[in-house]
Amino acid sequence: MRPPIAMAVTMALEESTSDSKLHKDSVNKKELRPSSAVSYSKSDYGLETTTSVDQLKQYKSWVSNERWNELKKLADAAMKERRVFMIKGGGFPAVRKALLDRGWIEKYESHKVRHPPVNVDPKKASDKELTKVERMILYKFMEHHSVDFLWTTKRDKYDWLLSNKEVIISRFCRSIFTTKEGLTTSLTQMHWYTEPGIALTNFPRCYNIHNSENLEEFIDDFRITACISLVKWFCKTFQTNNVEKQVMDHGKVPLTAIEFAINRINEHVTFYSHRDIDDFEDQSQHIWEHEWDQFLTHHYLLVHEKAKFLPDGAVNIRQLEKKAGKALAAVTKFWPQIDIDGVLNIWIVKPGNKCRGKGIQLMNNIKDIVGLINIPAQKNRYVVQKYIETPLVIYNTKFDIRQWFLITNCQPLTIWIYKDSYLRFSSQIFSLSNYHESVHLTNNAVQTKYKNNGDRDKALPDENMWDCHTFKAYLRQIGKYELWDTKIYPGIKQSLIGAMLACQESMDKRQSSFELYGADFMLTDDFTPWLIEINSSPDLAPTTSVTARLCPQCLEDVIKVVLDRRHNVDADTGTFELAYRQTIPKAPAYLGLSLCINGKRLHKKIKERKHEHRSATTLAPRTHSGDVTDESHQPVPLEYNGPIITDFLTWLNPYDSFPTNKDGILLGPKESLTDSRKTRKKSRI
C-alpha cells in the first residue's frame, strides 16, 4: 500500500549515501559546467543513453495511474505557481522541510537522477525505493523548467548568469568582506560611515602586508605600539613595585630605552596634533633602522624575559616616571585602541584566503612577520591584525561569540540580526605566554582536535559552547546582567551595520538574492564587543547540543524572512530582528533645461564724424559686406528660454558673435573685436 504524500515528502528529506558519493565524484571530475537554475536537454556527462520519454515509460511501471496523475498535477501546479526549488550540494534538511511545508516542490540536480532499479519487482519495492522513483518522476516532469528558489553553498557564476532576475538565490555573486583581506581593505574607510547610536564598528587595526604601502604602515604601527607598551609597562611596574628593584648591576637594558620610547610618543602626539606645521625646520630626530632594532630588542627583554635595568646615575627614575605618565596621558587621545594593546605587542597573522583557523599564528617579532612575505614561491597573502591582549575570560578561559545576520538587499541595504547567538570556548586555560592555537583560537574546527584541559573550571561546558541565554545567566551571577541589553548586543548590531555600510560599494546589487553570514566577536574586559571577521557559509551542522537546537531554527527563520515576508509584510520573522533598513533619498529633478538669462543686449551708439555735414535727413545705417545684415535694431525678446550652454559659450568666445561667410571667414572689421570685448566687459559689469 502506497504511503500518503506527506509521508513520502518526509522520507524525501533523507539523502542517500550513493547520491552523496556520486556528487563528490562529479565535483572532482569537473568535466562540464555544473547544472544551475536552468535545465539542459543533454546530461552533464554527455548524451543520455535514453530519451526522457523512454525514461518516463520506465518510471510509469512503478506507480499506479492515479499516483502518476497526482504527481503530474503536483509538478504542473508548482511550475505554474512558481514554487520549484533546488538545493545544490545536498544537506540542509531544515531548509528542505521548510519549503516542502509551504507547498514547494524540489527539483533535484541532474547528477542525482537514477534509472529505476533493474532487479527489483515494483510490487515488492520498499517505501524508500518508491519514494526515490517518485522523486525522479517529478524531476522528469520539471526537467526543462528553471527553478524559482536556489539554495547553494558555492559562488558558482553560472547560477547568476543562467538564471533570470526573479530567481531567488541564497548567495550574492560577490561578498568581498567575507575574506580577511577584503574585510581589512573595506574597513579602512569605516570612519566615514560612523553614526553614533546606529553604526559604530570596533575592529582591531589590520594590515594587508603583501601591499608595500600597508607593510610600511604596519612597521610604523608595530614600532609605536612597542613604545606605548613599554611606557605602560614602566608606569604599571612603578605603581605596583619598587622600580629601584628593577635596577641591578647584572641588568641588560639601559634606562635610556624608556627615554627613547617617551621621545617617540611625544613626536607622534606632536604630529597628530598638528603642532609641527608652524615649525620651519623639522625638529624631530631621525631614527636609524639599527636604533629601532635595538629598542625592539630592549622591549622584548624587559616585557617578555623580565630583564633588569642597568644602573645609570645620570637618570632620575622618579622624573622619568612622571615624564612617562605625562606622555601616556597625551597619546591616549590619538591612540583609540590603547586599551586592547596590553604591553606584550602581540599580533595575529592570518592567511587572507583560508578559513576554519588554518595557518593562523601569534607573533611578537617584526622580523618573523615580515619574513612571511619574503618566502620564495609564497602563495598565501597574509593579513596582520593586532591581537586583543585584554579579552574578557570566563573562568580563566577565552571565548568568542558567533553572531548570525542576514542581508536581504544591498541597495537599499537591509540587515536582519538573529537575536540568539552562541559562545565558543577554548579547551585550554588562557595565557599570553603560550601562543598555541588551542589557547587562542576558539573555532570549533580547531578545538575539536584537542582534549579539554583537566584544570579548567568544572562550570565550563564539555562541548565548549554556551548559548546566549546561558551567558546572560552568567552575567546575572557576576552582577552584570544588564550589560547584554545595554552594551553587548547593541554594540554587536552597531558594529555589523557600520561594517556593512563601509562594504556596501563592493556588494552585489542583485535584488532577488540574500545571504546568511556568521560574524565573530570578542569582548574586552570592559564588555565592549570587537568585530574579528565575517564568514560566508557559516557552519550550520549540529555538532553540539547547542548548534543542534539553534541551527535548524535559524534556517527555518531565514525562510520566514525571505519568503513569508515577501508576500506578507506582517508575517512572523522568528528570532530575526530588522536591525537596519537604509533610506535612500530621491534625487531632485534635473532643472538644466529651464535655466535662462534675463536681460537686454547692450549696443554701442554710432558717433558722428566732425568733418561730415549734418543733415536733417536720416541716413540708412551702413551695412556690412556680404549677405549678412546688422540685426541690432531687431526686437529683442524679454525672456530667453533656450539652452543656457549656447549663450555661455558665445560669451566666452567673442569671435562667435561676428558674421562669417560660408567658408567660416570673419566678415566684420578688425576694430570691431576690440569694441566687442569692451561691450562684453560692460555687460559683465
TrEMBL record:
Keywords, A to Z, come to:
ATP-binding, Cytoplasm, Ligase, Nucleotide-binding
Q: Which lineage do the record's taxonomy fields give for this organism?
A: Eukaryota, Metazoa, Ecdysozoa, Arthropoda, Hexapoda
User: What SUPFAM superfamilies does this protein map onto?
Assistant: Glutathione synthetase ATP-binding domain-like
Task: Give residue spans, biased composition: Basic and acidic residues.
Answer: 18-33, 624-633
Q: Which InterPro entries match?
A: TTL/TTLL_fam (IPR004344), TTLL_monoglycylase (IPR051437)
Where does the UniProt annotation locate this protein? Cytoplasm
Region (Disordered) spans which residues? 16-35, 608-635, 663-685
Q: Per its record, how is this protein called by name?
A: Tubulin glycylase 3A
Top-level taxon of the source organism: Eukaryota
Give the matching PROSITE patterns.
TTL
